[in-house]
């Protein structure tokens, strides 16, 4: 087991996340996806052992990993074909939940923190188009959804997954990211509805383990936490709430002026209104859990990226890159946003890793006492 990068449990103080010795911990995360997709497991287990992938992530400078799952994974928990585990033969004959748990343990054994994310209801790629996956519950839509769930079933899936011993009793499992990009039809989900559901789910999880950080994404595909000013999420345990947003080049529901085209002052105004105020007014931490860009960027892609890097450095926000993976599970298509090559070992050393390393204070042992 490798030395931990921080000392759990974690808690919040104003806009910061602190560890047990009151050192500020800045989440510098990467997303390792696959558990929410059609194959039901984190990708790459046919190429490299999970322990080696975990050490690879740490060697790249990340200190935390966002690990997504689908509700369908919990519901069906299928037996995983051995062909998907050819580099992890000790997991052959295992079901999806066992493999997900084993990947969590591999990451934490490497000293990394893990944030588990309920990403989608029906296993598959989250493209923002499927109404059945646009929120935490979809039972009101009736038979149009292949996988249906009520709000209570969504919470039950959370508590089932988090009860597994390699997760519940693991001090480096530090957070629960309650739902990916709640949006509803064309971004119609209200903050109030989501705030109430997030409180209910977060409080149930805190009854399981009072030390978990409860992470609540913004509405409108995780763009907007402005509603938290008047309707903050209230948890039964103090100092456990973290808000989260996603910022991509096209972000902003209903916007004819995407971030790929906005000048920096306009970009800053949007960030400040939607979530930056939580930091500048010392209200709560914000984890920008999904940022990303392609390995072959256009002029607009680079404009967005440079503005975002400038802003994240200015406000010193926690962040997470989407994604580690070199390929998508469906049809094994190339993931142009990935940070490693098909061998799950060779880092794509381009402008993205160069920028991200500049946002990693722990790479230079630059820790802050709060």
TrEMBL record:
<keyword id="KW-0326">Glycosidase</keyword>
<dbReference type="GO" id="GO:0000272">
    <property type="term" value="P:polysaccharide catabolic process"/>
</dbReference>
<feature type="domain" description="Glycoside hydrolase family 5">
    <location>
        <begin position="49"/>
        <end position="326"/>
    </location>
</feature>
<comment type="similarity">
    <text>Belongs to the glycosyl hydrolase 5 (cellulase A) family.</text>
</comment>
<protein>
    <recommendedName>
        <fullName>Glycoside hydrolase family 5 domain-containing protein</fullName>
    </recommendedName>
</protein>
<dbReference type="GO" id="GO:0004553">
    <property type="term" value="F:hydrolase activity, hydrolyzing O-glycosyl compounds"/>
</dbReference>
<dbReference type="InterPro" id="IPR017853">
    <property type="entry name" value="GH"/>
</dbReference>
<dbReference type="Pfam" id="PF00150">
    <property type="entry name" value="Cellulase"/>
</dbReference>
<keyword id="KW-0378">Hydrolase</keyword>
<dbReference type="InterPro" id="IPR001547">
    <property type="entry name" value="Glyco_hydro_5"/>
</dbReference>
């Amino acid at each position: 087991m490798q030395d931990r990068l921080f000392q759990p449990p974690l808690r919040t103080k104003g806009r910061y996340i602190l560890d047990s010795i009151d050192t500020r911990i800045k989440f510098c995360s990467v997303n390792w996806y696959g558990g929410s997709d059609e194959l039901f497991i984190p990708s790459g287990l046919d190429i490299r052992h999970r322990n080696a992938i975990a050490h690879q992530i740490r060697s790249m400078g990340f200190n935390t990993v966002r690990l997504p799952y689908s509700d369908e994974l919990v519901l069906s928990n299928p037996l995983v074909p051995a062909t998907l585990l050819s580099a992890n033969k000790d997991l052959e004959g295992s079901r999806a939940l066992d493999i997900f748990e084993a990947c969590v343990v591999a990451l934490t054994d490497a000293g990394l923190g893990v944030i588990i994310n309920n990403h989608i209801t029906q296993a598959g790629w989250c493209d923002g188009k499927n109404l059945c996956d646009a929120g935490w519950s979809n039972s009101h839509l009736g038979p149009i959804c292949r996988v249906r769930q009520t709000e209570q079933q969504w919470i039950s899936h959370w508590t089932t997954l988090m009860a597994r011993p390699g997760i519940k009793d693991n001090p480096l499992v530090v957070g629960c990211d309650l739902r990916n990009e709640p949006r509803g039809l064309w971004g119609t989900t209200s903050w109030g509805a989501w705030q109430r559901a997030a409180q209910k789910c977060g409080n149930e999880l805190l009854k399981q383990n009072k030390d978990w950080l409860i992470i609540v994404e913004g509405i409108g595909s995780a763009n907007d936490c402005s509603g938290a000013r008047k309707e903050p999420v209230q948890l039964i345990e103090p100092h456990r709430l973290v808000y989260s947003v996603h910022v991509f080049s096209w972000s902003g529901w209903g916007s004819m002026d995407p971030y790929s085209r906005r000048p920096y002052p306009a970009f800053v105004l949007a960030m400040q209104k939607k979530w930056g105020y939580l930091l500048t007014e010392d209200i709560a931490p914000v984890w920008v859990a999904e940022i990303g860009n392609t390995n072959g960027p256009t002029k607009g892609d680079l404009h967005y990226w440079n503005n975002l890097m400038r802003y994240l450095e200015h406000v010193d926000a926690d962040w997470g890159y989407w994604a580690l993976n070199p390929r998508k599970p469906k049809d094994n298509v190339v993931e142009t946003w990935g940070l490693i090559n098909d061998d799950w070992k060779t880092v794509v050393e381009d402008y993205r890793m160069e920028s991200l390393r500049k946002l990693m204070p722990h790479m230079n042992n630059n820790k802050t006492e709060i």
